[in-house]
Amino acid sequence: MVLIVERDGPVAIVTLNRPEAMNALSRALRAEIAKTFKALDHDEGVRAIVLTGAGKAFTAGLDLKELASGGNVAEDANPTDHDRDPVRALTKCRKPIIGAINGVAITGGFEVALACDVLYASASARFADTHARVGILPGWGLSQKLSRLVGIHRAKEISLSGNFIDAQTACDWGLVNRVFEPAELLPAAIKLAHDIASAPGDKVAAYKQLIDEGFGMKFEKAMKYETKFTASLNAAVTADSIASAREGVMARGRKQQ
User: Fold this and answer.
1) What are φ and ψ of residue 176, in 5° steps?
2) Would you call 73 helix, strand, or coil by DSSP?
3) Distance CA 247, CA 252 (A)
4) How far is CA 141 from CA 22, 123, 166, 198, 219, in A?
């Protein structure tokens, strides 16, 4: 199997499973990612997802050996077939996705990582954008997302050089949320997924949508969008539901002190 899905209660753990090829995104794997995340999006028992890689890599990106053997390079780099577009599948998934970046995330693999909602990285993780060196420019969003995350000058340093940046640099630059020792990475990602899964699923999905859609807007427009988006949702909240939620929030707060 090129992809493994395991369940830990309301958390789905998805593992890219081509360790012998550094989890390179073959056509078969890309199709399986798209199929799996579409299914998880519609699975009411799943409240959060962890995505990681088997072996020493997260994913090395498009399978260059497969590309070099023939096929439609344009369709691989700029897919019009949504059933074979892994980044679109992650982006459209309403369930929060925690990327547990266990090793290298290169080029297309970098783009898959950036399609996650939260990034936890192993201390051994490294990131690189080798699009220009390979001769294929990005079609999954890297040229636009990276500069918005780390700033335009750092994005150009990464993408125009093709050089690796290590996990701590990625964290310092705001690319990943946290860095963990390798053995601690997956447990930490799963714990966060359970923390997210313990909140009301409909509210989490709505909040994720609100953040994602507002992020691409100018601030003033985004503020107006928030008011419009949340007005009807907040109008449906009752005093009884607030009282019930308050007890849960206070109890959880006491446990985290």
Assistant:
1) -120, 155
2) helix
3) 9
4) 22, 25, 21, 31, 21
The residue among 97, 103, 92, 93 whose CA lies nearest residue 128 is 103
Domain match, 55 and 141 both: yes
Best CA proximity match to 59, nearest among 90, 93, 92: 90
- To the question of pTM greater than 0.70 for the whole model, the response is yes
Residue 145 — φ and ψ, nearest 5°? -70, -45
Q: Where are the alpha helices (DSSP H) in the chain?
A: 27-41, 64-68, 73-77, 86-92, 108-114, 131-134, 142-150, 152-161, 167-172, 182-197, 201-215, 219-235, 239-255
Is residue 235 a part of any domain in this protein? yes
At 112, list the tokens.
């898959």
Query: pLDDT by residue (tens digit) across 95-117?
Result: 999 999 999 999 999 999 999 99
Nearest to residue 36, comparing CAs of 55, 63, 53, 16?
Answer: 16
Angle between helices 152-161 and 142-150 (to 10 degrees): 130
67 and 138 co-located in one domain: yes
CB-neighbour burial class of residue 220 (10 A; exposed 0-12, middle 13-18, buried 19+): exposed
d(CA 12, CA 23): 19
Residue pLDDT, tens place only, 48-64: 999 999 999 999 999 98
Distances in Å between the Cα of 209 and the Cα atoms of 51, 81, 136, 205, 253 are: 19, 24, 31, 6, 26
Rounded-to-integer distance, Cα 179 and Cα 238, Å: 40
Kindly state whether residues 221 and 157 are assigned to the same domain: no
Total number of domains constituting the chain: 2
